[in-house]
């Protein structure tokens, strides 16, 4: 921490205890998007708190895309940071992985085996089927 860093003052409410969520496994991450989102968490809230004050309280999974729900310990600001930009015009990671699997052959079971080898949580059957249908009808 440099001497020019801003500090945060604790919230006056101490009834809201933040329990940090433990993450496990690996994720596919759009690095530039994710880093940009993390950087945007600096100087947030009324106390200009920093990213170091943020704690992960839960994780939301939408197939291979993950959202980390975060909360500031000082000002209680909340933000979900996604591993993929939902507004991006490029092919979404779920569509890309199903499309790739279809191109080389195999189905959900093969994809699950591949992802488990990488320690990445697999797509649900519903998500896989939805993406497969979307690709087939495109």
How is this structure best described in words?
With 138 residues, the protein is of the alpha+beta class. The protein contains four helices and three strands; from the N terminus they run αβββααα. The protein has helices spanning 31-40, 93-104, 108-117, 125-136, and strands spanning 54-62, 65-72, 78-82. A three-stranded antiparallel β-sheet has the order 1-2-3, with helices on one face. A hairpin with a 5-residue loop joins strand 2 and strand 3. Residues 26-136 form the Mutator-like transposase domain. This is Mutator-like transposase domain-containing protein. Pfam families: Mutator.
Key descriptive features of the protein:
Mutator_transp_dom, 32% helix, 3-stranded antiparallel beta sheet, Mutator-like transposase domain-containing protein, 138 residues
Concise summary:
With 138 residues, this protein is of the alpha+beta class.
The largest sheet has its strands arranged as: 1-2-3
Overall 3D form: elongated
Q: Which H/E pattern describes the elements?
A: HEEEHHH
Structural class assignment:
alpha+beta
Q: Tally the helices: what do you get?
A: 4
Spans of at least 5 consecutive residues whose pLDDT stays below 50 are 1-15
Largest sheet: 3 strands, antiparallel
Question: Topology, pairings included?
Answer:
Blueprint: H1 31-40, E1 54-62, E2 65-72, E3 78-82, H2 93-104, H3 108-117, H4 125-136
Antiparallel strand pairs: 1-2, 2-3
């Amino acid at each position: 921490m440099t001497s020019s860093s801003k500090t945060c003052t604790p919230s006056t409410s101490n009834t809201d205890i933040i329990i940090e969520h433990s993450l496990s496994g690996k994720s596919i991450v759009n690095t530039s998007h994710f880093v940009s989102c993390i950087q945007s968490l600096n100087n947030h809230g009324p106390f200009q708190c920093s990213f170091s004050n943020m704690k992960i309280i839960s994780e939301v999974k939408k197939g291979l895309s993950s959202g980390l729900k975060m909360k500031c310990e000082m000002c209680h600001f909340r933000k979900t940071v996604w591993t993929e930009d939902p507004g991006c015009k490029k092919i979404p990671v779920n569509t890309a992985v199903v499309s790739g699997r279809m191109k080389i052959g195999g189905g959900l079971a093969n994809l699950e085996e591949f992802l488990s080898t990488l320690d990445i949580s697999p797509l649900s059957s519903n998500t896989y089927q939805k993406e497969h249908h979307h690709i087939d009808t495109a």
